[in-house]
Amino acid sequence: MTADQLKALIAAGMACEHLEVEGDGRHWFATIVSPEFEGKRPIARHQRVYATLGERLKTDEVHALSMKTLTPAEWAAK
């Protein structure tokens, strides 16, 4: 899997105002800005992203994903 493919999977599964993905093909880091994160704790935000990847996590197609999940307001404040 490439960074562009992973980015496309996340973007297809949820509304993202900003999305960056980088990694080495097995270990990934994503910065995801989504209005869907409003009012959610970090664990719920991560679970939402994991839900978009579904079977790809279970089959080890995406081995490890670290992420920074922000609301649009949090992103704008940076």
From TrEMBL:
SUPFAM superfamilies: BolA-like (SSF82657). InterPro entries: BolA (IPR002634), BolA-like_sf (IPR036065), BolA/IbaG_stress_morph_reg (IPR050961). Belongs to the BolA/IbaG family. PANTHER family: BOLA TRANSCRIPTION REGULATOR (PTHR46229), BOLA-LIKE PROTEIN 1 (PTHR46229:SF2). This is BolA family transcriptional regulator. It comes from Ottowia beijingensis. The lineage of its organism: Bacteria, Pseudomonadati, Pseudomonadota, Betaproteobacteria, Burkholderiales.
